[in-house]
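Pinned message: reference record for Isopropylmalate dehydrogenase-like domain-containing protein
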Amino acid sequence: MVDIAVIPGDGIGKEIIPQVCDLVTSIDPSVNFTFYNISSERYINKGITIKDSEIDELKSYNSIFFGAIGDFRVKPGIMEQGVILRLRKELDLYMNIRPAISFSRITGNNIHMTILRENKEDFYSDISGSLNEHKLFRQKGNFYNYNIDINSESDDTIYYTMGFLSRKNLKRFFNMAYKIADTETVTITDKANAVDMYSLWREIAIEESEPAGKKINFEYADSLAYNMINNPLKYRYIIAPNLYGDILSDMSSAMVGGLGYAPSGNIGDYSSMFEPVHGSAPDIAGKNIANPVASILSCIMMLKHLNQTETAGIMEKSVENVIRNGTIPIESGGNAGTHEFINKVKNYCTMTKNNI
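Predicted structure (C-alpha cells):
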C-alpha cells in the first residue's frame, strides 16, 4: 500500500488533480489517496492557510500530490508563502526538480532539459521587512541556527529581503544534484559577478563535484537565459539557486509548449511533494480547457520516486501515445478538453495494462 496525501488547492488544481488520482487507481487500486482541503477558499472563509496539525500529518505520508494555490480574492503571496514555501521548509524539501522535455507533436523539437533548483534558501527567505522598524529573526533547528537583529532607520520607504545560503544545506543539495544528473558535465548558474554570497555557492559546487566525478561549466544566469533560447539542445542538466531556478525553469517550459507541460518534484531526505508548475488559473477553472499534462507528468515523477515504476511506465507510455496519435490539448491548438484528454489517457492505460 502506498499512501499519498493530496492537496488539490484552488482553480484548475481542483479540476484536474482528482481526475489524475482516479487515473492512477484505475491502474493500481493499492495506491491510496487522502485529500486535504488546504485552499484559498478555506482561507477566505476561516482565515487558515495551513494548520500545524496538517503539517505534522503530511510528514507521515509517502509523498504529497499538490495541485495549485492562489485566488484573485487573496493578496498575492499569502497562500504561496503560507502553504507552498512553508511546506518546503517544514518538510525540509531542499531539492526542486523541473524537467523540460518536449513532445515533438506539440513543439517539433527534441528538448530534454532538467533544472535542479535549490529549494529553501537564496532570496526566498522570510527575512524581510522595512528599514523603519525593528525586527528580530530567529531560526532554531537541527539543521542550522541564526539570530538576526535588524534595527535601522531611513528617510525613505525602503523594504528589504535578505538572501542567504548555508554551507550545510548547499553541501547536501549539490550532493543530491550530482547524483540525479546522469551526465558527466553539468551547467551551474548564478550571479556571482553581482551578488557576493554566490562565491560560497561556487566554492561548494566545486568541492562536491570532485568526489561525484562531475565536470562543471559555470554560466551567469542572464547569459544562460540568452543561450538557452538560442541553443536549448546544448543543455541537459542546469543547477541553479532558488530565485534563478524558478525563473529559468518557467522559461524552459515555454520552449516545450508552455506551463501546461511543466511538472516538478520537491525532494528531501524524508519527504517529497510533486506539483505542476502552472498556477491555479482561476479564470479558466471549470471550463474544461485547462491542460492536464503537467499534472499527469508530475504524478508520473512521484510514482517513479516511490518505486511504483510499472504504474508510472504505463502512464508515461500512454501520454506519449495519446499525443503522438493526435489528441492535443486545447492550450496547444488541439480539440481535447481537460476531461477528454485524461479519459483518452485512461483508455490507453487500460489497453497497455491488459497487454503486459
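Pinned by admin. Summary line: The mean pLDDT is 95.
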